[in-house]
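Page 37, continued from 36.
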């Protein structure tokens, strides 16, 4: 008996297919061979800022226990399914497969996987690693998918993970509007949240389980555990047939994409988590985006809450110079503009005092003095008493926001971003989590 890990990536295009669907087909075919699957198949989200991704930058892997004499049949099924189903006619689809026979995953493969989630790698790096650890790789066309294929095998999901149940459409329905019964989904969410999460936007009530692309996915239900995913799936009513469904174990909703850095270490397309002090007050720019600057001991950088982050911008607008905050987000750069962190979460650690300027009080008549003119101080209109310019009083104002952590709504959330409800529902709290308020 052997343990064989199978990684697959880059099989779809914007016009159709989905690597998770190919995974579901392959799982079914290899099960027919009497092969045992270890744990759940994995859906691994890779660097969300990678510019050449088709949509959500995901790769999949399946680990099986298998007799030596069945290995070649499994390989034939995997490669055959890619040939039959991948969008090979699209010039941007370059599938890759990796087969790795080993019970343990070596550290070099785990490190590679982390790098593909947090940074960039080249096909050459992937090939070099494969030959070093004796993994078998197959490239279709340019074969860029070998990167994701190896990365999906290397992510063991040993720390944080979630599940997604994905239901697929029958071919005749693909490319048409998805026929889902919204009230049943709202009800499902009421009954299963927070063991299922991000399936309905709690503020706007928007249903978030189905994509708008021509891919085979009818819907996907994100959940903390497989039982909740299946319960939720049983509650969803559809007005079109479901061809099949599968549950993936995944790094979605785990914050796996962030690296902790100082501002002067930031690179384009990083996803960063860093602490600093607000160095310019937020301003709203054309398009409804809210921008401010943040500095730490090394440098200064722009941060932005873009229009799709909706009410999250109201929080960002209330921070002021001097606030100590932690930001979470992806680093992007528009042509001609500086690096900007696209905010995904904002943690307010310490609020700076905010003051109102109040004119001095006349002790004689108890009235507030008025301005005596530019640079001329103040005067009490009633008793004509004069006050110097520096007699202005600073009165501390209550801040309109509280210390705590705030997040963008589900509609603007990246697959890898951990929703705040997951910090309280299941896993231990992170060190910096002192939350007065959960905002969504
Ligand atoms: P979908 O989510 O719809 O399955 P996708 O967004 O995952 O599609 P792919 O079609 O898989 O996009 O294309 C992404 C390609 O980029 C893959 O070939 C993958 O191997 C490669 N890739 C992903 N992340 C990185 C990275 N960090 N560095 C280098 N290559 C990467």
């Amino acid at each position: 008996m052997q343990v064989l890990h199978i990684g697959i990536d880059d099989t779809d295009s914007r016009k159709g297919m989905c690597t998770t669907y190919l995974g579901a087909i392959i799982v079914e075919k290899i099960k027919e061979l009497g092969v045992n699957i270890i744990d759940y198949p994995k859906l691994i989200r890779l660097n969300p800022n990678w510019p050449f991704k088709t949509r959500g930058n995901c790769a999949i892997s399946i680990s099986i226990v298998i007799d030596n004499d069945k290995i070649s049949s499994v390989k034939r099924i995997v490669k055959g399914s890619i040939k039959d189903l991948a969008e090979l006619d699209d010039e941007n689809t370059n599938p890759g497969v990796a087969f790795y026979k080993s019970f343990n995953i070596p550290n070099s493969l785990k490190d590679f996987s982390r790098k593909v989630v947090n940074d960039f790698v080249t096909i050459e790096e992937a090939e070099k690693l494969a030959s070093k650890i004796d993994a078998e790789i197959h490239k279709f066309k340019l074969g860029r998918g070998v990167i994701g294929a190896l990365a999906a095998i290397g992510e063991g999901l040993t720390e944080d993970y979630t599940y997604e149940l994905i239901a697929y459409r029958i071919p005749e329905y693909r490319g048409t509007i998805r026929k889902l019964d919204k009230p049943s989904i709202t009800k499902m969410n009421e009954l299963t949240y927070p063991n299922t999460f991000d399936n309905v936007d709690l503020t706007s009530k928007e249903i978030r389980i189905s994509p708008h692309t021509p891919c085979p996915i009818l819907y996907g239900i994100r959940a903390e555990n497989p039982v909740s995913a299946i319960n939720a799936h049983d509650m969803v009513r559809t007005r079109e047939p479901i061809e099949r469904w599968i549950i993936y174990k995944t790094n979605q909703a785990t914050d796996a994409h962030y690296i902790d850095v100082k501002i002067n270490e930031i690179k384009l397309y990083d996803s960063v988590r860093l602490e600093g002090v607000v160095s310019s007050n937020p301003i709203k720019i054309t398009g409804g985006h809210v921008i401010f600057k943040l500095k730490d001991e090394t440098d200064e950088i722009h941060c932005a809450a873009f229009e799709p982050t909706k009410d999250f911008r109201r929080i960002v607008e209330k921070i002021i110079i001097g606030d100590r905050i932690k930001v979470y987000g992806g680093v992007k750069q528009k042509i001609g503009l500086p690096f900007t962190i696209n905010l995904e979460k904002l943690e307010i650690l310490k609020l700076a005092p905010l003051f109102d300027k109040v004119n001095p009080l006349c002790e004689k008549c108890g009235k507030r003095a008025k301005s005596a003119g530019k640079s001329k101080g103040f005067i009490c209109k009633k008793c004509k008493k004069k006050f110097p310019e520096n007699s202005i009083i600073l009165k501390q104002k209550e801040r309109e926001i509280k210390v705590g952590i705030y997040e963008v709504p589900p509609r603007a959330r990246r697959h890898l971003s951990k929703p705040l409800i997951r910090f309280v529902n299941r896993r231990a709290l992170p060190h910096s989590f002192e939350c007065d308020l959960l905002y969504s």
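The first strand starts at residue 2 and ends at 9. Flag for discussion at group meeting. Confidence is low (pLDDT under 50) at residues 427-440.
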